[in-house]
Amino acid sequence: MTVKDLAIKLQEKPSLLIKKLMDMRIFANINQVLDEAVVTQICQKYGYQIKKAPDEEESLLLIHEQTDSPKDLQPRPPIVTLMGHVDHGKTSLLDAIRKTKVAESEHGGITQHIGAYRVSLPEGEITFLDTPGHEAFTAMRARGAKATDIVVLVVAADEGIMPQTQEAIDHARAAGVAIMVAINKIDKPQANIDKVKKHLSELNLTAEDWGGKTITVAVSAKTGQGIDNLLEMILLEAQMLELKANPAKIASGVVIEAKMAKGKGPVATLLVQNGTLRLNENIIVGRYYGKVRAMFDNRGQLVQEARPSFPAEVLGLSGVPEAGEKFFVISEEKTARDLALRRQEKEHQEQLKSTKRISLEDLYSQIKAGRLKEIKLVIKSDVQGSLQAIKDVLNKLNISEIKLDIIHEGVGNINASDVILAVASNALILGFHVDSDDRAKELITKEGVDVRIYNVIYELGNDIKAAIEGMLEPKLKKIFIGKAEVRKVFKVSRTGTVAGCFIIKGKIMRSNIINLVRNGEVAFEGKISSLKRFKDDAREVAEGFDCGITLAGFDDFKEGDLIEAYEIEKIARKLE
Fold first, then answer.
1. Which of 50, 98, 215, 343 is 20 to 30 A from residue 38's alpha carbon, by CA?
2. What angle do CA 144, 470, 429 make, to 5 degrees?
3. In the listed set 311, 337, 352, which residue is the last one of a domain according to the structure?
4. Residue 223: how many CB atoms within 10 A of its CB?
5. What is the model's pLDDT at position 104?
6. Is the sign of the CA dihedral 215, 216, 217, 220 positive or negative?
7. Domain for residue 499, yes or no?
């Protein structure tokens, strides 16, 4: 926006606006383009807030963001991810479901590995995502994708809760998805289902038969025992979640996995989340575009369309997108291509900058913009005792206005899983007497995650305290600027009612808030909409001078009214 454009919007003379900019040590001519931060500052000085207009990309994708009418929504199958400790049987359980249910429903069809597959039951369908562990699940979420409705936490009946189990729980909770539990390996002699349920209850995952709300099913991937019950419970949970989509809409969704296939080129498994994806439609996927040349289901069969919750392997993209990238159908191929090129250029420009995730230092800028009212933390410590001491210190800092959210805690060095969770959740990582393993260090550097390592607990507490203090709403103090007396009231055809005033104390500024006082009581509080000396706009009028004042939202002036002008001073608050 140029100085001239801004002056028109603010109904201010360009010369006065240029003077205001000079007061801010910004030297600009009438045709100079101002950056967004400067425009925001100027608007605030004039008592206005700015709302960013949608850019070309946002306008193109607006149809996908529009809320669907309830009458257009239809139930859709749940999308399920299995998570848990590495040796507790996630893959075996998926294989058992695939062999017993997918084969039955597909009449001997061979299941293709496309990262997702469907199970058909008399009561409904389920889509399973075959993601390699909770790190991949959260890495997808870090790209803005929420592909999963339900997480089934797989816990071995003979081993119980393990470190990766706790990590999986924290990753699922951070994603805000429903959690069910499958207690696997119940065929083993050492299986102890009640012991597992006891440990789960300590993690606020109390089984329904123990008086809690967590659906918990005992299964054996080896014998097939309990699998039917597990699938029924998934469909029951899905009914409670009331999962719906609009199949009549043009499609949007997420990439589950993608690869470069010999003889086929780029191949991507797309999960449709809303709408229906059809052959020959144009799509944009991250920085790539394409036309849907062919679609295959998880049996490798050609399909003409993919409805909500349907995973399909798609050919025709210009490149290999990353898992977690969102896709959208675009009406024109040229539009999709141009948008992809703009995204590529934008990504290139961002790579040239030093990118960094949220840090304690940049909390303040987000706070001022009103975008942040919580601090998310991942905490790792050398021993359990230190971890508890850190939590005690942080609990003393926590107040009702600010949410201090520990999304994951653990004993041991910072690992890749911790970093991926921090990236997806925009969290800080705090370590006490620990280091980062090699893969974690690579990710920390690549993603720009703020990791703070401490050797003294009170230093950790002081850093977080400073961040919280910056997030507290400041105290507001009214500073008296001046007072004017209404001596004449005029009716002006275009302007409305104007108060002819005389400044009896201090000064009146166009940017002030005012109290209109009548008979010793405040009759109106608001903002000045115009301030004039004779016929000229004025930024301020000093004591002993006449002026004309109009108020935003008030025109019932009477002679003898007093207009008191104030500025609001914001005073930073401190924790006691």
1. 343
2. 45
3. 352
4. 11
5. 45
6. positive
7. yes
**Structural domain total, the chain:** 5
Asked if residues 400 and 468 have their Cβ atoms less than 8 Å apart, the reply is no
Provide the domain limits for residue 527. 475-571
What does the CA dihedral 31, 47, 374, 212 come to, rounded to 10 degrees?
Answer: -120
pLDDT recorded at residue 285? 92
Q: What is the pLDDT of residue 133?
A: 62
Question: 285 and 321 in contact (C-beta within 8 Å)?
Answer: yes
Q: Which of 454, 453, 409, 414 is nearest to 437 (CA)?
A: 414
pLDDT of residue 501: 96
Chain centroid offset of residue 278 CA: 29
Buried b (16+ CB within 10 A) or exposed e, 522-557: eebeebbbbbbeeeeebbbbeeeeebbbbbeebeeb
Coil, helix or strand at residue 6: helix
Averaged pLDDT, groups of 10, the chain, 576 residues long: 85 84 78 81 80 63 79 95 84 84 44 74 90 66 77 93 88 90 94 94 94 95 93 95 94 90 89 95 92 92 95 93 89 86 74 53 52 79 82 75 82 90 88 90 86 85 74 71 94 85 94 91 89 90 94 90 89 59
10 three-class SS: helix
CA distance 12 to 26: 17
In whole angstroms, give the CA distance from residue 119 to residue 152: 15
Biggest alpha carbon–alpha carbon distance for the chain: 96
Nearest to 475 by CA among 369, 569, 398: 569
Query: Could you tell me how many residues make up the chain?
Result: 576
Exposure class string for 408-427: b at 16+ Cβ within 10 A, else e:
bbbeeebbbbbbbbbbbbeb
72 within some domain: no
Encode 147-162: b = buried (16+ Cβ within 10 Å), e = exposed: bbbbbbbbbbbbbbbb
pTM greater than 0.85: no
- In three-state secondary structure terms, 394 is helix
Classify residue 208 by its DSSP letter.
Answer: G
